[in-house]
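Step 1: inspect the first sequence and its tokens.
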Amino acid sequence: MAPPPAVADALDDEFADAFPFESFNRMQLEALPAVLETDENVVVSAPTASGKTALAELAICRTLRQEGTALFLAPLRALTNEKEAEWDRFEDLGYSVYVVTGERDLDPRRAERADILVMTPEKADSATRKHDSPRYSFVTDVDCCVIDEVHLLDSDRRGAVLEVTVSRLRRLCDPRVVALSATMSNVEDVAAWLDAPADCTFEFGDEYRPVPLTAGVETYAHGENAFADKYRRLYRALDLAQPHIQDGGQALVFVASRQDTVRAAEKARDVLAERDVSIAATADEYDFYTEAEELQNKTLRQSVVDGVGFHHAGLSKGDKDRVEKWFKEGRVQLLFSTSTLAWGVNLPARCVVIRDTKLHDPLEGEVDMSPLDILQMLGRAGRPGYDDAGYAYVVCDGADAERYRRLLRDGKPIESRLAEDLDAHLNAEIALGVVDDIEDVMGWLETTFYYARARSAPEAYDDAASLLERVSATLGRLVDAGFVDQSGLRIEPTQLGRLASQFYLRLETAEAFHALCERAGDLDEADVLQTVADAAEFDSVSARRDEREAFGAVLGGEAGQLDAGNRKVLAILRAGMTGTTPGELQSDAWVIRQNALRLLAALRAFCERFAEPRDANLVSRVAARVEHGISDDAVGLTAIEGVGAGRAQKLAREGLATPADVRAAGVDGLVAAGLSEGVAEHVHAQALSLPSVAFEWCDVPDRIRRGENAMAEVTVRNEGDGAPAGIRVTVNGVEMSSEARYLGERTLPVGVFGGNADELTYEVEVAFPELPLHPETDSRTVRVD
């Protein structure tokens, strides 16, 4: 079948088949010449659901026509997966689409050969930081970068990442940039940052919305009990949604957390039943009932047949896909979701209500939902092709009402968030070699949105001279703190600066880790845990009264000098090491543990560089216990590929507590311990591949006379696969020699000196810094006569 005429007119080649609609809309047609017929950078600000994705695809088409590589930056990982599925249209035309996700999953050859790359800003940041490595060299071959939802620049945590990543990419390979955004009041600032000319900068107003929007702010009767207030807001939200539901429309209600989506859906079913509002599936909808039975989430299974659903990131992909499909089909008329849905799947509804304007962040405590999220959610109101109008409401306390009315009336300019972590980001650019002299520092600053926005609004930022002074002062602090070396106009990173950049550390945390390493060889588990719990990344963690009682029971008097929030972090780590996290701490435990594991990986690298292998090994064992909730004596089992917390605990209960025990047990012994034969064979093979140390002493006398000397030696042999190791020889606890090496086999001299001591105990210790294996030791004792 021939392509629809309007698309064929604009795209008179194979790419017309990549668009699944009949014609471009008014907004798309106005921007099309700039996107498709020039190589200029383009900035487009347009209402949600107005069709910006087609502009992204047009930019990609132009790049592919020119045999180039396009990079699409999506705000959420879930959206990258959605694009991979959607863009099989390009695959059908013979072009390769590759989503770059985690480090372990990266296929460098596929990435190198891809015509379209899809990443989140965080993944693109990581890739551009590693651009000079063979695995990530593909990122320097990008010819066009499409930024979806560029207003993410104003996001508290993620905005600066997007800003520096795009600036870095432009310095590395200078791609064409096409930036797409929801409505923003200062589109010209983004255009100035990206050097988009006036005729390639577009600001489309509400008249371009496919469905007119009516937005308002509604208040509720605020009480003293936060739990009861949730239900007051829920009743208000249902009051607003009910007329649209009864008229056959749909309502999307945004709440603060995953748990809230479930609880609100359960309560809404009861309330609607009490109000005699019937939206349940009818008895003759047999196929729907049958498909609902296939949902993994039991509560969702019961809810959707009543016409009420919920959606959050914790649901299985299959459950989320079904809920989205049913909502689009109208089978689910009322859907409760977290804010992430507003940034991801295109799922509009006639009525959108934001029930919660505040949310609990495990790392920040109670915070206001960002204005960006508010506007993004409200923009989902109105379903093109189905609704004549969209209705959007913010439900809030009366004290906040005017603030939200002003947001809806005036919008919000997009601000730079770079200043909040300027020192860490400047250090990263120096560590990467992107900036290597004083002139480069100033040149880098001028490539940032921070600089462009400051020029536009000096009253809110600094003027240009003050900005330069600020960056100069920041550079001076980096030099003074040891992150950067300066010689005349030249600057270069130190190892401390490189590690801070590699692990995305706050610089205060990097300094604390470096200070801990000065106590090399004398660290213990408490030092490691308390240093991580006290990291600057956890400064905003708060502790409620019930949480304080819970972590007091876990910690007793340990680390009383820490603030309450940091003691909460420590308690979660301590409890997690034994797999017994108190219920009061569980809601924040996962997020805190994930951040702690990242910090522990950084601390291990710091110990490898600035302390000793045995210190790095200690950190590896602590990290494995935090991750798997396993006892100290069995932690080495987690070094075996295929052995996680559950399997390690099962083996430990059967008396197999170390990789050596697993090797000795053999496949039959592992089967007897409860593993299936296939799993037992895999686990045994992996255990055999781990380091296995044997010691051989030569010429060590049993006795020596005072004043006499003898030379002996000890051979350390790794009978498993080679691995980095630290070898340390001591006599009576005093170090004689130490070295770090990739261990296969190594012979070390041992001097035996008959001195004043009556007995000499020689000990050799082998520690593997990258593996959670307990150090292996062997010793010999010599009597002195």
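Step 2: inspect the second sequence and its tokens, then contrast the two.
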Amino acid sequence: MSELNKVIANKNEDIKIPDMLPLLPVRDIILYPAMVLPLAVGRKKSIKALEEAMSSSRLIFVVTQKNLQIEDPSPNDIYNVGTICEVLQILKMPDGTLKALVEGTNRAQWTDFKLNDKGYIEVGVSVFNEKIDKTLETEAIMRHSITLFEQYTKLNPRMPIEISISIGSIDDPAKLADTIASHLIIKNTDKQIILELINPIKRLEKIIEILDYEIEILNIEKRIQARVRNQIEKTQKEYYLTEQMKAIQKELKHKDDIQKDVNELKDKLAKISMPKAVQNVANKEIARLEKIMPMSPEAVVIRTYVEWILDLPWQTSTNDNLDLKRAKSILEQDHYGLEKIKERILEYLAVVSRVKKISGPILCFIGPPGVGKTSIAKSIAKSLGRNHIRISMGGMKDESEIRGHRRTYIGAMPGKIIQSIKKAGSNNPVLILDEIDKIGTDWRSDPSAALLEVLDPEQNYAFNDHYLDIDFDLSKVMFITTANNINNIPSTLLDRLELIRFSSYTNTEKICIANNFLIPKQLKEHGLLPKELSFTNNSINSIIENYTREAGVRNLSREIANICRKIVKEFVFKKTLNYITITNRNLNKYLGISKYERENIPENDIGVVTGLAWTEFGGEVLTIEVNKINGKKGLMLTGKLGDVMKESAQTALTYIRSIYKKLNIDDNIFSNVDFHIHVPEGAVPKDGPSAGIALATAIASVCMNKPVKKKIAMTGEITLRGRILGIGGLKEKVLAAYREGINTVLFPKNNEKDLIEIPKEVRKKVKMISVSHMDKVISLAIPHLILKKNRVKTTKTKNS
């Protein structure tokens, strides 16, 4: 199609309009001639159309979509009549979209719709001629339109008054109609109808019709608003007067109610036995309550404070039952094993029975989870006949949780200690401070510092809670704390505690606990009778080894409960079923596949040694792997090792290098080979010096190219001279080795005193060998080596 240029008059100048123009479809906007409007453009075709317009005539055809949801409109999706616009400015945004400022010039109708090779849509345009002769009738219609529009702007609060002033200066009927239409707040369909009216007179008549309708609606809205406002004012006036009447009546009656409440507080105070100083404070606060305005917020604060004072058991105590035989019976009934712990508790109670008061340091039960720390503390309270309250210290970060908040704060309350005393109802309960090693700290305060006064027998007779601001005697309270890891308890707090260590249970102990405590408890909780469900000892042992792997019995109880639930379901669905025995054969049916498997260490694996570790959850078996590769980097360490363990590895390597002649190791190996030490599992943090001899043995095994015995484990700290130092947690480490089927454990000679704590059944199956120097460790751990006169001699077997 040939480009024919049309010349029309617009804005007092000639603008050449091509026959084909780029198309810009817009949504939810009707653009009129002489209207300047910013547009946000994001569609690719629209962006290309704008860019083409800017690079050529700066003209673009803007038309409105019928359906706003369509992304790529077709000819049927847009109106026939639109506006030719001049692109005044384009601004590129960071997200790739464009902002364009356009000004409408002429009405036009598109006649041809096609996709250009450049990727945008162009249309043929037919420009409408809107010029008419101005007559008296035209002038009258224009004036009437202006008058109605002025009324419309006055009634519509969203319309600025300045618009009506600018409208009055327009003398062109076409421009007047378009300007008024662009400012009307009406539907886009109505705006499009006005756009499609070519004759300015017809257009003004349509605008007059719309303005009449809108003015009528606005007048109705105004009348409704006035009616509602009058009703609200009347209602508010009635409400205000009613509330005043209520307040007067309430004040007259409230004085009687307040006096009644005050009299009740006075009567309660007279009946309660408390220290003279506390009584004086209570009387003073009650007197303040009488004088203060009843509606004052301070009255509520004072009343709450007085009620707290009156509710505390200042001189109310429970009588202690100091029958040691009864206490021993309760401890034996509630807990299996733990002989040393029970003995220490009975000693403590024996002293109490003699001196008739709590004395000495605070007991702190240290041990892995699930070994009975909290439950034995409850048994102590039961044996004494005292009330007991458990306070969870885990995650506590604010000192105010111990000491309380001062009364100046809104919603202030006493701390956990005073709250627990009130809850117990006596001034001599057993307070169990659970998980004391989990106390946190932040920028506000340190709760463990507040516990120093609470747990110090020399200070807690005058414990001052911030809320009460009165001394409360805690010397009669029996405090028992529990923790998993002693290293997380601040030293100043630890100094006030007497530690009683709880160790891991052996499999035999766990089987006895399951038969005597856990299984009967779960049968009762799940509505089962002993004649309906039973467990063999082998099945309990399989649960222990293959489904729990823990120091205590918490998960064992959970797995037994899991089985009970499934058995109850079978009984409900199968009415004929009335008895089931859990054996190794049907265990997988109820618990699924085993969760844990023993690690199978190859018999002749060079550079692999089994170490022993202790965590707050009990003992663990640690596999240490060492490999050598060509290089000159020296020592590489992986497995999320801590600084102390890294230093132990360096010490072990240095020691092995120092005795290379004794071990018949080529000295060149240390200058041409890198040693890579890895301790699975890689995601679990590991630290401590007790893996020193295991690291040294693994390095020696790699250097000598000889395997380490399979069923041997070791623990001990190594020095640069090869001496072996003592370690902690020997019992837990040996129990872990016992669980994994290890038959020999090498341990420091300094720890021989700890052998008495290891159960006899474990010592029967695990050979315990004490060592004081690395020479003995290497000769015991690596087969076919004989240490003689400071020289390691290699012997050969017939089958080697």
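Step 3: confirm your contrast with the notes below.
The two ends are 98 Å apart (CA to CA). The longest helix spans residues 200-271.
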